[in-house]
UniProtKB/TrEMBL annotation, chain A:
Swiss-Prot/TrEMBL keywords: Amino-acid transport, Cell membrane, Membrane, Transmembrane, Transmembrane helix, Transport
Single biological process term from Gene Ontology: amino acid transport
Protein's cellular compartments: Cell membrane
Protein name: Branched-chain amino acid ABC transporter permease
Keyword Membrane recorded: yes
Record organism: Abyssobacteria bacterium (strain SURF_5)
Family in the record: Belongs to the binding-protein-dependent transport system permease family. LivHM subfamily.
GO molecular function: transmembrane transporter activity
Gene Ontology cellular-component terms listed: plasma membrane
Membrane topology category: Multi-pass membrane protein
Primary location: membrane
Transmembrane parts of this sequence: 12-32, 44-60, 66-83, 95-117, 145-162, 192-216, 228-256, 268-287
Automatic annotation (TrEMBL), chain B:
Domain of life: Bacteria
Gene Ontology MF terms: branched-chain amino acid transmembrane transporter activity
Record InterPro entries: ABC_transp_permease (IPR001851), LivM-like (IPR043428)
Subcellular location: Cell membrane
This protein's UniProt keywords: Cell membrane, Membrane, Transmembrane, Transmembrane helix
Bilayer-crossing regions: 6-28, 59-79, 86-104, 136-155, 187-208, 220-247, 259-284
Principal location listed in the UniProt entry: membrane
Pfam family, one: BPD_transp_2
Membrane topology: Multi-pass membrane protein
Protein name as catalogued: Branched-chain amino acid ABC transporter permease
GO CC, one annotated term: plasma membrane
Length: 297, 298
């Protein structure tokens, strides 16, 4: 394979994995915008999506179009349940308490997943076969197209939700100014619950479509969350388009790095990007520096 | 305490205590969260082991050099990291810890990779080798006592007050003339160096190390110990280390599922008693003394 097609191959792989980071980053953003919380359990939603899907399709033998929405709904219920039980009852918690609670949530979910599905990695068949499609000397797995398609669907769905529906608009109002939103009759607490459900759902979609490519095990969530957070930061915390661009960028960087530098340090590349962005420009590529300064961390 | 099994456990409690009481200074008093302390623990363990097992230095010199190396790492990372706050700081330190963990796993020629490496020399003084659990028990707890005295002194000093003012409001502390950047940095490096000593002790006690001992779960466990014990209380940090380091032993029947208990304990403490166990104890003490006062009055 010549350099060009090799690079192209890495790009394809990078875009597929980057789409997952983008979806995780979108999940972070939705909760962050609504509450100012970084949900450390975001990666666990992705893992749960994949795991539920494995059980529904291989144990319960449900067909794909039925299992997919059921898996998403189950994870949404977990997200909403977590918010209701652990975050909803708190009165004016400190940032440190919130960090610890979402970390505790992630440990708990991870533990339950280990209990339910065991320690070994779970396999899910590819949605539409494993015959690679040849493109300019490189190949694309059909599953990668599923991943890209899911990202597109999630982005379009979110755009429609936030711009066209009353509930979406209410959530945006909450993100801008919770006090004012409350004055016009929006239940901010309810919006927070919905934001957890929504980002759990997006995480689940990401987990379901990526499982056939990477396999899923109970502790995969943590690294996905770290990289997704890297994407959210790189794109500017809270920015939707930023999350998508940065997610793809991190995926591509990681894939090129693994191909041309060392596959051992594949995971480190994304983290070094995360640290570098935090140090140099915490507001991110597309974030607003001015707005960032006003936000409380 | 004649049972050697419990003695070995207490050695580990001591090693964890060294880290939690120093982390308590950073987290509980300074309000600066670090989710990457296992990295410093690991750097200490790997540096002193490599220096003594491969280079042939005396383990004590290895420990000192490891402290120095960890200090430099902590200093370099603290300059950019401590500009961050809250969630950003937590994620940055978590990311740093993960990078170091990946390095331990991937630099196979240096560290032995995922399978780790053994035959690390034991500590010895004038021909006396710290071989039995009881020897190590005294060494570790003597170190803990020295550290406790040191940290209690720091807390009640000017630095301690400055640190608490940073926790309250960094802007206000700055306005009052506290050099917040310098103090945060010093405490960060101090607690990292202590973690390095703990790591070296661990390595020379177990005589075998592998990367999993120093992964992100350990960082989170350390923070949990501090939080469960009671963040703004050094004794709480000690209590947290004792409880959470021994808990898995009592939960043997649960096997691997002790992770569930950790998560649940942490969640419940954070939701219902953010002040930790020390906070609960002080509430009980206050109630009790009030009752005594009432009885005395009547």
């Amino acid at each position: 394979m010549d350099v060009l097609s090799r690079t192209l191959q890495y790009l394809f792989t990078g875009v597929a994995i980057g789409s997952i980071y983008a979806m995780v980053a979108l999940g972070f953003n939705i909760i962050y915008n609504c509450t100012g919380i970084i949900n450390f359990a975001q990666g666990e939603f992705v893992m749960l999506g994949g795991m539920f899907m494995v059980t529904l399709t291989t144990v319960w033998k449900l067909p794909l179009p039925i299992a997919f929405p059921i898996a998403v709904v189950l994870v949404v219920l977990v997200g909403v349940g977590f918010e209701r039980v652990a975050i909803h009852p708190l009165k004016a918690p400190s940032v440190l308490v919130l960090i610890m609670i979402t970390i505790a949530g992630s440990i708990l979910i991870k533990g339950i997943a280990m209990f339910a599905w065991g320690k070994e990695a779970r396999y899910l068949p590819h949605f539409s076969g494993e015959t690679p499609i040849a493109v300019l000397g490189a190949t694309i797995l059909p599953q990668s197209l599923w991943v890209l398609g899911s990202l597109a669907a999630v982005v379009l769905g979110l755009a429609w939700f936030f711009n066209r529906t009353l509930m979406g608009k209410a959530m945006r109002a909450c993100a801008h100014n919770p006090a004012a939103a409350r004055l016009v009759g929006i239940s901010v607490k309810q919006m927070v619950t919905i934001s957890f459900g929504l980002s759990a759902g997006i995480g689940a979609v990401a987990g379901i479509v990526i499982t056939p490519i990477v396999l899923m095990d109970y502790q995969r969530g943590a690294m996905l969350a770290l990289k997704g957070f890297g994407a959210a930061i790189l794109g500017g915390l809270g920015s939707g388009p930023g999350a998508v661009v940065a997610g793809l960028l991190i995926g591509i960087l990681e894939s090129l790095g693994a191909g041309y530098i060392s596959s051992h340090y594949k995971d480190a590349i994304a983290l070094i990007v995360l640290l570098a962005v935090l140090f140099i420009r915490p507001s991110g590529l597309l974030g607003d520096t001015e707005a960032q300064r006003l936000k409380k961390f | 305490m004649r049972n050697p099994y419990y003695l070995g456990m207490l050695v580990f409690v001591g090693i964890y205590s060294m880290m939690t009481i120093s982390l308590c200074l950073l987290l509980g008093y300074g309000g600066q969260i670090s989710l990457g302390h296992a990295a410093f623990y690991g750097i200490g363990a790997y540096a002193s082991s490599l220096l003594s097992a491969r280079v042939g230095l005396s383990p004590w010199i290895g420990i000192l050099v490891a402290m120095f190396i960890t200090g430099i790492f902590a200093f370099l990372i603290s300059v950019p990291v401590l500009k961050l706050r809250g969630h950003y700081l937590a994620m940055a330190t978590l990311g740093f810890g993960e990078i170091v963990y990946i390095f331990f796993n991937s630099a196979v020629e240096l560290t032995g990779g995922p399978s780790g490496f053994g035959q690390i020399p034991r500590l010895s003084v004038f021909g006396f080798v710290f071989k039995r659990d009881i020897d190590f028990y005294y060494l570790v707890w003597a170190t803990v006592v020295v550290l406790l005295v040191l940290i209690l002194n720091v807390i009640h000093s000017r630095v301690g007050r400055a640190l608490r003012s940073i926790h309250g409001s960094e802007t206000a502390a700055n306005a009052m003339g506290v050099d917040t950047a310098s103090i945060k940095m010093k405490v960060f490096v101090f607690s990292a160096v202590i973690a390095s000593i703990a790591g070296s002790y661990y390595a020379h006690y177990v005589t075998f190390i592998s990367p999993t001992t120093f992964d992100a779960n350990v960082s989170i466990l350390l923070v949990t110990m501090v939080v469960v014990g009671g963040m703004s209380n050094v004794w709480g940090a000690l209590l947290g280390a004792l409880l959470l380091a021994t808990l898995p032993e009592y939960l043997r029947t649960f096997g691997d599922y002790d992770i569930l208990i950790y998560g649940a304990v942490m969640l419940i403490i954070m939701m219902f008693a953010p002040e930790g166990l020390a906070g609960i104890l002080s509430i009980i003490k206050r109630r009790f003394s009030r009752q005594l006062y009432r009885q005395g009055a009547s």
